[in-house]
Amino acid sequence: MSARPASEFAQTSIAAPGIIGVDWEERVDFNRLRDYRLARARQALEASDLGALLVFEGSNIRYLTATHIGTWGYNKTERWALLTRTGEPWIWDFGSAAKNHRLYSPWLVPDQSRGGNNGLQGAIAPQSGLPHGTAQEIAAILREEGVANMPLGVDVIEMPILRELEAAGITVQDGQQVMLDARQIKNRDEILLLSQAAAMVDGVYHDIYEFLKPGVRENDVVALATKRLLEMGSEQVEAINSIAGERCSPHPHVFSDRYIRPGDQAYFDIIHAFNGYRTCYYRTFAVGRATQAHRDAYKKARELIDSAIAMVKPGVSTADIAKLWPKAEEFGFSSEMEAFGLQFGHGLGLGLHERPVISRLNSLTSPVEVQEGMVFALETYWPADDGHSAARIEEELVVTKDGAELLTLFPAEELVVTNAY
Description:
Layout: H1 30-46, E1 52-55, H2 58-65, E2 80-84, E3 90-93, H3 97-104, E4 113-115, H4 130-144, E5 152-154, H5 159-167, E6 172-174, H6 176-183, H7 188-211, H8 218-232, E7 236-244, E8 265-274, E9 277-278, E10 281-287, H9 292-311, H10 318-322, H11 336-339, E11 344-347, E12 354-358, E13 375-383, E14 390-400, E15 403-406, E16 416-418
Parallel strand pairs: 1-5, 3-4, 5-6, 10-16
Antiparallel strand pairs: 1-2, 2-3, 7-8, 8-9, 8-10, 11-12, 11-13, 13-14, 14-15
Helix pairs in contact: 1-6, 4-5, 7-8
């Protein structure tokens, strides 16, 4: 990606096609999306030494089965899916959701959409026999589908079900790496959904730009952004980082009820999901007016992200990108572990943190090759010389054969001042 003239602004050729299907234009083809994801999972499974994948994490379940029961179901390990080398996906769901999927998800084999319960993370004690029953059912399917003598890959798991699988003679290995291998290259439909999700945040940032003035609180911005995203069709607003004034440095990663004051520097990160596909999208503002320290910090953060974007193209190593960023000690931290997440890149998809993950903590010793079809966010941070302000910028991009194409379009070339005096 060549450097653009200072007078130009970020644009993209990637569509954000709208949130409903229409008969007069090709948008997201959900049948193609489902077929692609399952084919990618099968390909990754075949390339491994595993006989099957058993997944409990919500984004992996959705990737394999295209099922979803609402955000309350996340992080509860109370749904699970199974894919063997030889069969079609199985899904065990919460109560009546299984019957619903048999009615409305025709891509599933009806008998393979079942109710399941492992004990609600221990609320029903393992002595109930629920984990034992699950393990026996899975073992029977592995035998029927001819992979019982091969390891079973698992992403995340509770201890009682792990012990029961082992007691059933199943060798359990890490399956998360296989799932992340599958998920790292996006097809056209995934990219369109990611673009639409980013376009929704473009609009919310304009609302924040108009709203941001002295007397509003950080949590008021969170409320505004959450309301607007849900009105626009967001499936889940996972988090809104809302940070201002003296809370900018060091980054606390949580909003407060602090009132925003004249001359504050403020930054925000908007994380939401549209049809499961997520954003991670930082922007920084100055409220009313900006100091030279604010502008200098922003300029440095912009330089760091621009150099990283310019480096992105197929065949480049994530180490090449991470080397462009300063060491932790250069911006006030004692170690790369403590500075992790500030000069940072991470894949985006059904999960917030997919491959590749780019930072000086991991990429210099464990680099990953950048490939066409990857979608990831790059984010940078720089503390201001005043000792408490800071700038934060994040851009989401698609890796094309020619380089990086941006998905995030709210103005970020220079520090934006809201309600200028």
